[in-house]
Write a structure and sequence with these properties.
single chain, D-Maltodextrin-Binding Protein, domain 2, 2 domains, five-stranded mixed sheet, 40% helix
C-alpha cells in the first residue's frame, strides 16, 4: 500500500469509526466529541505505528515528543477536525491524515464522513468553474477579521462553515474560491488539507505568501491561505495592504 493509499484508507476507516460512535447513542455534546477524538486517535496512532514504524508521528490527541523532529517523514493527523460540529451532529467536520516529508505537506487525505467523501492527493480531480462573485469560507462562529476585510475589498461573499478541513475541501470541491484564516491553528489543522489542496492545483501558503512548513518544534501555525490560483496574488496583496495600512 502506498503512502497515499494508506492515508486515504486510514482517514476513511477513522471516519467510519466516528460515525459508529455517534450512532451508538451512548454520548452527546462534548462527551460525544471526547469519545470520538479518543477512539479515532487510538485507531490512527496504532495503525500508523504498525504500518510505518520508522516514521515520526504528530497527533492533536497524543502527547507530543521531540522524536519526530529528527525524522524526514512525519505523519500529522487530526482524528476529529471540528469536534464541536461532530458533537452537534453536523456534517462540516473532517478527519485529517497527512505525511510531511522534509517539512512539506506532500501526501494526505481528508475524509468528510458526514458527506461520505474522502479527498486525497493521489486522486486529484479538475477544479470546477469559479463563481463570478468570490466566496470566502470562514468560521461560522468567529470569522477572521482579515477574511472579513478582504471579502469587503474584493466584493466577496462570506460562507460560514465548521472545521478547517471542511473549509479547505469546500474550495477543492468548487463550493468556494478562497479560504483565508488568521485566527490561530496548529499543524494538524492544515497539513492534510494543504496537501490535498495543492495536489488539486490550488494555491497554499501563509497569509504573507511564505510556504507552509510542518514538523516544527512549535506546532502553532496561526494563519494560512488556500485558494484558487487566480485569486492568490490579489488576496495576498490585500492582506499586505491591510497589515501596512
Amino acid at each position: 500500500m502506498t503512502d497515499a493509499e494508506l492515508a486515504a484508507h486510514l482517514a476513511e476507516c477513522a471516519g467510519r469509526i466516528l460515525l459508529e460512535v455517534r450512532a451508538s447513542g451512548m454520548f452527546e455534546g462534548k462527551a460525544l466529541g471526547k469519545a470520538g477524538d479518543e477512539t479515532a486517535n487510538q485507531f490512527l496512532v496504532h495503525a500508523i505505528r504498525a504500518q510505518r514504524p520508522d516514521d515520526g508521528l504528530l497527533s492533536e490527541e497524543s502527547k507530543d515528543t521531540e522524536e519526530r523532529l529528527s525524522k524526514e517523514r512525519v505523519w500529522i493527523v487530526d482524528p476529529v477536525d471540528g469536534t464541536r460540529e461532530y458533537g452537534e451532529e453536523r456534517s462540516d467536520w473532517a478527519v485529517h491524515v497527512a505525511l510531511a516529508i522534509d517539512g512539506k505537506p506532500e501526501i494526505g487525505a481528508v475524509a468528510l464522513p458526514g458527506l461520505g467523501k474522502v479527498l486525497r492527493t493521489d486522486q486529484p480531480g479538475p477544479l470546477g468553474a469559479a463563481a463570478e462573485k468570490p466566496r470566502l469560507v470562514v468560521s461560522r462562529t468567529r470569522p477572521a477579521a482579515e477574511a472579513v476585510a478582504v471579502a469587503e475589498r474584493i466584493g466577496g461573499e462570506l460562507v460560514g462553515m465548521g472545521s478547517a478541513g471542511a473549509k479547505a475541501m469546500a474550495v477543492v470541491r468548487g463550493e468556494a474560491e478562497i479560504y483565508l484564516h488568521s485566527g490561530g491553528q496548529f499543524e494538524w489543522d492544515s497539513c492534510a488539507p494543504a496537501a490535498v489542496a495543492a495536489a488539486h492545483g490550488l494555491h497554499c501558503s501563509r497569509i504573507d505568501g511564505s510556504p507552509l512548513i510542518y514538523n516544527q518544534r512549535d506546532t502553532y501555525m496561526p494563519d494560512l491561505l488556500i485558494c484558487r490560483p487566480e485569486w492568490a496574488e490579489k488576496v495576498l496583496a490585500e492582506v499586505k495592504d491591510l497589515a501596512t495600512g
